[in-house]
Amino acid sequence: MTSQSFKDIIAWQKAHEFVLEVYTTCKYFPEYERFGLCSQFQRAAVSIAANIAEGYRKLSKPDKLRFLNISQGSLEECRYYILLAHDLNYIDTTEYNKLNEKIEKTSWLLNAYSKGIIDNNGIKD
């Protein structure tokens, strides 16, 4: 099956779900974190999905992989924000586990998507 849009990419779908969860979670952060940790967390989460979307239309492997690598970097940044939010008691263990589960699934799919691009001989180098 050939995808018609970045929205067909399962890695993007899971990244988008993660973004929505981050926005929901940040509503419960202290007000003084609105322009601090909350803003950084949301920006990094959006970057995961946005870079998958942007890389989708790139024609060469290096271009596609560059955007996917940026997504991976943002994903790792979010891993830290999840840990920090938990350590600061902004989120409880249940929310911590929910965010970790979503980011792990996104990470696995993003890595698999990247490998698929690398292994695809139909995409020019």
- Estimate the mean pLDDT confidence: 94
Number of helix segments? Answer: 4
Low-confidence stretches: none
- Based on secondary structure, the structural category is mainly alpha
What fraction strand? Answer: under 5%
- Alpha carbon gyration radius: 15 Å
> Based on DSSP secondary structure assignment, what is the total number of beta strands?
0
Overall helicity: over 70%
Shape: elongated
**Terminal-residue CA separation:** 22 Å
Task: Give me the strand/helix succession.
Answer: HHHH
Let me know the largest β-sheet.
none
Write a structural description.
- The chain is mostly helical.
- It has 4 helices and no strands.
- It has helices spanning 10-26, 37-56, 61-87, 93-119.
- The model has no long low-confidence stretch (mean pLDDT 94).
Provide the fold topology.
Elements: H1 10-26, H2 37-56, H3 61-87, H4 93-119
Helix pairs in contact: 1-2, 1-4, 2-3, 3-4
Observed structural traits:
125 residues, mainly alpha
Quick structural overview:
By secondary structure, the chain is mostly helical.
